[in-house]
Amino acid sequence: MTTLVRMKDIVKRFPGVLAVDHVDFDLNEGEVHCLIGANGAGKSTLIKILAGVYSKDEGTIEIEGKPVEIRSPKHAQELGIATIYQEYNLVPYLSVAENISLGHLPSRFLPFGLRLVDWKATIKFASELLQELQVDISPVAPVWSLGVGQQQMVEIAKALALKARIYIMDEPTAALSSGEIEKLFQVIRYLKERGCGVIYISHRLEEVGIIGDRVTVMRDGRKVATLSVSEASHEQLVELMVGRSVSRQERYTRAKKVGKPLLQVYGLTRKGVFSDVNLEIRAGEIVGLAGVVGSGRTEVARAIFGADPVDAGRIILEGKVISIRSPCEAVKCGICYLPEDRRQDGLVLCCTVADNVVLASLSKFSRLRVFLDRARVKKEVMSRVQELNIKTPSLSQCVEYLSGGNQQKVVVAKWLSANGKVFLFDEPTRGIDVGAKVEIFNIIRRLADQEAGILLISSEIDELVALCDRVYVLREGRLVAELVGEEITKERILAIAVTGKKDGSLERSASAGKQTNGGGVRV
């Protein structure tokens, strides 16, 4: 059996983080090798090294026995590696056919050495690939007009167009229906028959049992085990991911009293994203929202904040039903949202620290609703910078040049200046160093002590265990459990997110390895 990929002793460092720590990984022809682990385990970093997105710091890579240095994504494609990323990499205003052949559009020669794109051949090629995937998508339709699941199928067709030997699939089924998942599995089986190899990353353990041959588990940047899928139970895989028995319970004392309900959400629904979400946040309470990537956590927070529309549901703030149709209305009501992507959604990078801090509360600092009171702005910003220990050379420094932790604190300062009552923290410690994390934790606790209500979304389950009074577990757009006090443990949260069962039991389905309904088991 030919080994298509051999990665040996791979190391990748980012500032303050050892993302991949001396990891070995290999892929054989005709094999689906699954790669699993909790969020932050290093899976995506490892495959991005193979895909040419990141350069390795140490280690060796061999493709079909030959040592290589993968210099770029284009070079990876030339080596026969095709990647389907979890985040879509499509050009929305180009057609489906153009996206599928982007970078290698068919062309025809004209006199005098001229070349033109052969649009007829481009559309024909895309049509054949879409027929192979058994999806009804017009090759001339613009990508922006497609649904999320259809866009994912275009991503898959785009990878198949490269006619590679090695396919990397990062959460390829996250947005697919059960029928589309089965079509994808048929394509994967076809690739295996052709002697191709597939690296398959998924949070759905049921899919691992159905489509995988071997499974490698990563934890904290390291490989902890490689097993035959036929011999690996769901319980064993979860234990390997967590690092201890899932039956172990940890006790945390949560003696702090909380006040009256601040925010109550009933029946919140956005079709195809989340359904019938009910939650409550009390004054002085930190409430966690757990779930894996794709479970709908961020989408629920955005809907509460008015950033995304909803189809049904009620939001009650301090006992009064409110209608929030935009973030501006949410801010007026005292609801603040610290987004997952602070650089894109939380800050204006080209503006100063001062401008960003007062951005959500300009009306407080205006005279006659026209002129900005610069003296009051300076006093407010200096107070927030000192309170949050924001390290900046001056208040006029562009936030683009601050560290990640200080950028995050600027976002917090913005909402503190807006006098918020309810704070929705979405991945508040992502991409920041340990020291900054501690400071963010202290800010969250201080806000709770001041009787604010906190909804904390985090992929780091340890953060939820350490901070939260209650934790809701969200799976595939539905709340499946509410944990309180001693029930809040890393093992229990992860087990419920995996199985969708309120008791967190991990019995393997008798039908695993035979068929799927598209729901899957997520970790």
Keywords:
single chain, 523 residues, alpha/beta, Rossmann fold, six-stranded mixed sheet, 17 helices, 24 strands, 32% helix, globular
Write the layout of secondary structure elements.
Layout: E1 3-14, E2 17-28, E3 32-36, H1 43-50, E4 58-63, E5 66-68, H2 73-78, E6 81-84, H3 96-100, E7 107-109, E8 115-117, H4 119-132, H5 148-160, E9 166-170, H6 178-193, E10 197-201, H7 205-211, E11 214-219, E12 222-228, H8 234-242, E13 261-270, E14 274-282, E15 286-290, H9 297-304, E16 312-317, E17 320-322, H10 327-333, E18 335-338, H11 342-346, H12 353-357, E19 366-367, E20 371-372, H13 374-388, H14 404-417, E21 422-426, H15 434-449, E22 453-457, H16 461-467, E23 470-475, E24 478-484, H17 490-499
Parallel strand pairs: 3-10, 3-11, 6-9, 9-10, 15-22, 15-23, 18-21, 21-22
Antiparallel strand pairs: 1-2, 1-4, 4-5, 7-8, 11-12, 13-14, 13-16, 16-17, 19-20, 23-24
Helix pairs in contact: 13-14
How do you describe this structure in short?
By secondary structure, this protein is α/β, with parallel strands linked by helices.
Task: Walk me through the structure.
The protein is of the alpha/beta class. The chain has three domains: 240 residues, P-loop containing nucleotide triphosphate hydrolases (Rossmann fold, 3-Layer(aba) Sandwich), CATH 3.40.50.300; 161 residues, 3-Layer(aba) Sandwich (Rossmann fold), CATH 3.40.50.300; 71 residues, no CATH class. 32% of the residues lie in helices and 26% in strands. The protein contains 17 helices and 24 strands. The protein has a six-stranded mixed beta sheet with strand order 6-9-10-3-11-12, sandwiched between helices. Strands 18-21-22-15-23-24 form a six-stranded mixed beta sheet, with helices on both faces. α13 crosses α14. It is globular and about 70 Å long. The C terminus is likely disordered.
